[in-house]
Every structure is written in C-alpha cells, then in structure tokens.
Amino acid sequence: MSKKLFIPGPIDVNEDVLAQMAKQVISHRGSEASALQEAITEKLQDLFYTKNNILLSTSSGSGLMEGSIRSCTLKRAAVLSCGSFGDRWYKMGVLNGVPADLFKVELGKAIEPEMVDKVLSTNKYDTVMVTHNETSTGIANPIKEIGEVIKKYDNIIYCVDAVSSAGGMKIEVDESNIDICLTSVQKALGLPPGMSLCTFSEKAKKRAEKVPNRGYYFDLLAIYEYIQNKNYQYPSTPSLSHMFALNFQLKKILNEGLDNRFNRHEEMANLVRDWAQEHFQIFTDVNYLSNTLTVIKNTQGISVSNLNKKLQERGFLIANGYGDLKEKTFRISHMGDYTVKDVNELLININEILGF
Amino acid sequence: MSKKLFIPGPIDVNEDVLAQMAKQVISHRGSEASALQEAITEKLQDLFYTKNNILLSTSSGSGLMEGSIRSCTLKRAAVLSCGSFGDRWYKMGVLNGVPADLFKVELGKAIEPEMVDKVLSTNKYDTVMVTHNETSTGIANPIKEIGEVIKKYDNIIYCVDAVSSAGGMKIEVDESNIDICLTSVQKALGLPPGMSLCTFSEKAKKRAEKVPNRGYYFDLLAIYEYIQNKNYQYPSTPSLSHMFALNFQLKKILNEGLDNRFNRHEEMANLVRDWAQEHFQIFTDVNYLSNTLTVIKNTQGISVSNLNKKLQERGFLIANGYGDLKEKTFRISHMGDYTVKDVNELLININEILGF
C-alpha cells in the first residue's frame, strides 16, 4: 500500500499494527495488563537509551506537555520556543498558574546551547522546556548539546518534547541529561493517535514531590507511584488497544534496528531536501534540519491549497505552512514505517501536478 | 462468543465494533474528521436526550471529572459522594486548588434530593457534583429528582458522572437540568477504553468563561470553542480509532432502540438480583439499585478471590468488592451489548463452582 498522509502526524499505519487495535480488551487491573505495560516499558527504555522509568498517558502529547511543566516546576520554568509547539508549552504553564518565561527564536532558527546557558545563568529557573523537533518550522534542536549546558547548573529539570521525532531520530535520554522526554504515538512511532508517553527520571520524581497543585490526571508523580506500587498499572483505565498496538510496534521497531530506522528517516529527508533545493528553497536553518519533516519555502508562489487539492485526488496529502507560515511555506513529512519508495511516489506526483 | 469480563468496565467488545478500531487513520484536521465528530455529536444528543453540545476527550472518564470541577467552579463545589468515585471527584477539586466540600452518605445508601437541598440552602456553592452510578456500591442515584431540587436555586452548575450508566440506563439530560453529564466509552457504551465524552450546556459555558486557571487539556471551554470555531474539530489530536468505533456503535445503539437497550440492562440486573437474594444478600439500598451492576453482600463468607480464580479458569471474571468492601462484597456487572443469555451462563458457572 502506498502511504497517503505526508502530514506531520497522524500518519498511515501498517495493517498489522492496526490489527492489534482490534484485539479484545482485558481487565486493566489484572496480571496480563501489568505484563503488557512492563513489556512496553522495557522496549521504550531501549528506544530512548535510558534506564529511567516510562510513564504512559491516555491523551495526546499535549497532555504530557501540560503534566511536565505543571508537575516539575517549583521556582520558574524557562520555555525555549522556536515555533508553535514551544509557544503552546508556555501557554500551558500560564494557564495552570505555573511561573514561566518564554524565550523565542526567529522562525526557522534553532535553540542553540549558548542561548540556554544565558537563560540559566540568571538563576531564576528550575525547569527548562525544549521542543526537539518543531513541526511548524522543520527545526531539530540540538538537545544533546543543550543537555551538556544543563549539566553545569544545579537541580534543573530538563524536559524535551519529542512528539514528532521519537522513533524517527536518535534521542539518547541518559547521555543528554534529559529528565522528561515525551512523545505521542501517532508520529514517528507509527501508531494511530490516542496515547502519549514519557521518560521520567528520579530527579524529576524528587522535584515533583515538592510541587503543590499538580492536579490529578497529568500528575506525573501519581502515575509514577501507581506503577511502583501496583506493579506496572495505570491509575485510571488506559487505552488498552493502544497498549496492544504499541507493544507490537515496538517489537517491530527494535527488530528493524534503531540505527537502521533512524538512517531510513534520514534518507527520506535527504530525498525531500534535494527535491526542495532543486525547485524551491528549504525554509529552515540547514544546520538543524529535522529528519521527519521538511519545511519548504514557497519561492515559486504556487498555491499550496490547490496543490494539496490535486494531491488529494490522487490519494495523497501534504501539509500547508503552520499558522502565519501558511502558503508562505509547505511541509512534507515522512515518519514511522514510511520508505524511500513512498516518498519518491509522492514527489513524482507533485512533479506531475506542478509540471516539473 | 460468550462474554467473559463481568467487571464494571472494561467489558468485552463485539467483534464488529473492534474491527472499527483497526480502520486506517485520517487527518484530524480534514473535513472527514469534522463530519465524523458531528455525526457522533448528533447521536450522543439522542442518547442523552439533550440539545446541549457534546465534548469528546481522549482520556479516561477521570479526565472529564477533573475538567468539569475545575472548569466550572467559581465559588465552591459541593461534591456529594456515595462511594469511591465521589471521593475521587472531591480529591480532584482539592488537587487543583478548587474550593470544595465533600458530603458523604453511608456506603450502600443513595444521595437523596433532600440532602442536596440542605447543602444548597447554605448558598455556599455554585457547582454540584453527583455520581449517577456508583460502581463501588451498586447505587444509582436519583439524578432527575436531584435536578428538580437544583432548579430551585440560581446559577448552580449540575455535573453528573454517568461513567458506568450512560448507554445502559436512561439519562434525560435536559429534563434533569444537568449541565455536564460525562461518561467514558468502555462501560455501558460497549467500546474499548480510551475516550470519554460529556454534554455541555450554555450555562456551563458561561460559567467557565468566568473561571480562571482552567488549565489546558481539560479546559472544557477551550474544547467547546474549538468545536464552534473549527467546525467540529478537536484542539489536539484525538483518538480517531475510538471515534470510528464510537460512531459505529452509536448507530447500533440507536438501531436497537434506547428503551430496548435500557430494558435489556434492567432484565440482566433483575436476573442477578434474584440470584443474589436467593444465595446471598444485596448490599445496596434496594430503592436505588443500578441496572449495570449489582453489589452482593458476602453473607456466606465465601472467598471471593478463590471464586474468581476458578471463574477465570472457565474464562469469566467478576469483581471483588472495592477498597474496604473487598471480600465483604463482590460485584457482577453486565453492560454494553451483554445479554440475558450471557448473564445466565455466568451464574450457572458460579453455581457450579459454589455448589449451589
């Protein structure tokens, strides 16, 4: 089957993974549910190169973004934003009464380690929020190098939004000093939307213990403690269907080999970048390009909406620019189990429509 | 297929509904997603006998419980509790800094309208939280009669937790003056867990507009406004798989006929009650019995755990008593698409095991 959704999630899901969504439900309080969550945990620890705990959440990635800024900020959060999703994280802090400041870079630019260093040197903050892969601009921020900066400071909880990168780009959580690395399943993990997950360090746990007003459903400490006390169970009833599919898909991901998977995403990105540079321009700072999507500057002044309408007639969909970047840019995304062949097929169709 | 999970959710799901969970995903920002959410909304309005708006949430029912007390309490919440789930609602208020008081009745007793009247006559409250069907005790509270009381007072937002009753017992939202009636899909609606939903009145909307600190993911006003402004779409990426299955299942529910469905649940309950009265006793005040589960007093001093172990060998599962009621009571639940035949089969197996 050729892939049709080239938007930055949700994406087309393989049939064998979809079949797992249709498994008969089990009790969420039995040993079978515990074993399932434990099996998922072990595989996610491999995927994230971490020994830290794994928390699951029946919600979109936004839920865990809200949960992390609210559960772990005692003093003040520094939210570093390079686009819409960073801005959203700051908004979540404000809407929960969490003291927070927003530091923005120009759209298309990255959050560089020096900027983080400067922000932290004020000694005003105890959490740092960084988007790894900003789907509104196509930036992949240098989260490992930012982690080196964070090491210099005492007691900073480092939270990374890896919603559109985890499973498609290498994220070494422990090596990068990341306390909370969150993602949702409908992006590079290749599942239908409806579940999110994060890594959760002991340091984050100790911080959350001191934070009042963490709420209920997204209180990361409460989820953590439930797992500890109830042998890998979940405080409320989780989406068991997503857990079946996630466990199955993680087996496939680890069987593919993480490096093979990450290389495949890079190959797809290279293909789109070459095409973009031939016909348009890349919108994003070329030193920090994402491997799961490319944002293309509409230098030819085409109507992106019209292109997308014609693509849809052929069974494909790409994404217009996000927010203010609509029509000024457009986005081609390739995540999960997509292949070079799928991307080639899309580009051939775009070429035919645009007469390239 | 004989049903095996006789716990108060999750329950066994019919194969044709499960198949919907395996449908290929679509863009959550396209017209197909809008049409899907609109179709679900119309059917849920029928199910709840309401003209009010319907909000969907990718979360367990706890998410919308938290969202309702937090989004709509300006002055102070009165949480009326007849068991564990009422207590949880109060706790959610406290954990979010919402001023709230807890009014408890003895386990096994109902929340009667007079009690609500007395609480509201203090003029201290502007939200009232009532559990419709308390699965820890088997009580179905008289939510319609409570609604009559609430009518006497100005500007009270009336929130009902119908998690384990909606779809199995008649709930006339508009007739009962309910502003927010919430449920999750893995109970009497007969779906796998992973989504919750609620009705949302204009009065609730106007209240939420005045409430600060509503958070992000469970801000009911934000979900409402997104639906209004974005033509039935959802602020973050929803579980499309659950939406496919929900729309399909609601069609089946309306085809069965609501009264037929509610009667079927009552017949199953009558069967279990008769059996319970023959061999044990009913734990619950018989004037307020739930039609989706029966809580049975363990007057014979059987080991409920052992019974359940033996049932599991035969492919069935019932629920032990909840919390402090463990072993003192046990619970038999029958929801969704279960039939009298399924319940009979379970009871025959219990009889064989216990030598009745």
Automatic annotation (TrEMBL), chains A, B:
Entry GO MF terms: L-serine-pyruvate transaminase activity
Pfam family membership, one: Aminotran_5
Keywords: Aminotransferase, Pyridoxal phosphate, Transferase
Alphabetical list of InterPro entries matching this protein: Aminotrans_V_dom, PyrdxlP-dep_Trfase, PyrdxlP-dep_Trfase_major, PyrdxlP-dep_Trfase_small, SP_NH2Trfase/AEP_transaminase
Keyword Amino-acid biosynthesis set for record: no
Coiled-coil residue windows: none
UniProt domain Aminotransferase class V: residue ranges: 26-322
EC top class, as a word: transferase
UniProt-listed Enzyme Commission number(s): 2.6.1.51
Cofactor(s) required, per the database record: pyridoxal 5'-phosphate
Keyword Nucleotidyltransferase: no
Similarity-based family: Belongs to the class-V pyridoxal-phosphate-dependent aminotransferase family.
Full protein name: Serine-pyruvate aminotransferase
Annotated organism of origin: Terrisporobacter mayombei
